[in-house]
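ok so i was messing around last nite and threw this chain in just to see what happens. nothing serious, just curious
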Amino acid sequence: MNLPCVFAVILQLGLSINSSPQELLDSSHAAAAAAAAAAAAMSIPTRPSLAIATRLHLGHASHPPPPHQLHTTLTNFANLARKVHANIAIVSVDAEERIEGYSLVSEVETICREMNHASINADECRIEVIPIQPWGKFVPALNVIVAHSARKNMQCLLLVSAEVGIRGDVMEDLWREMNLDDTLVVGPALQGHKHQSPTKPNTPNQIQLSGRTCPWNTFALWNVPKLSLTGFLQISEGLHGDESTAGIEEVCTVATIQKLQPEKSHAKLIKIQSPQEVVWGQDFSDDKARMEWHERKMQSKDSRAKAQLDLIGLSGTVLHG
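result:
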């Protein structure tokens, strides 16, 4: 260790100039160990602060979900929050009474309260339940989540469907693509996406933005400061004469923010190593009405997105990697 370093150690540890050689040597070793630990810590990649959020609603369900099913859904969400190392976890819940005598908010709050109390690790993020009324169709709950994440100074927001789980390193893939300076959203290509793999190594394809080329809020990592410029747009609520065009809120949001910041708002859809890395539970076989509604929603993603883009007169691009 050179003399300036030894002198720094003397000052830091309160050693006097008259300290013995052994004391100086011991302090030098301690300083070297501390420096090595600091260097090791610096070599660990730091992640932006992260909120994870999902939405719970009865949709077109004709009867309340069984208690065990709701408990499983929330347990899986809590496990996902831990797995992605989220700083905060949010569940927005439809507070309107859809089925007489049944309160979804009360059920969710009870389960989450029990789960939060049962958490072993005091540093684990607790699930925050946010009742939403009016629920609307798609946008109100999402924008409450965005605003809450921004107020908590979160840099990124992982929006997930309640039916989603992950295996493998899919989050590492998303983080590699999330550049806070120039990226708005990153998502994995899921069943139903029209993903076009790059033809040149390390060169993503630039694809026209559409309902099936854009990341979906089924599983999407958003840049909170950029998303907060507009939030999700009201046009995706179906308020312009044709309610059937509602939804697919990601598309017009991407197009609008890309218009505001053309070079700093990339949308990225990436092909993950294995389709099994994202588990998307779409089995609604116990509720025919819910199953039919889900099928219609999937089949109309392109047409709904096009109708909305035509109405606002914008277009956009997505990078497929």
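not much to say yet. Residues 1-17, 40-44 have pLDDT under 50 and may be disordered.
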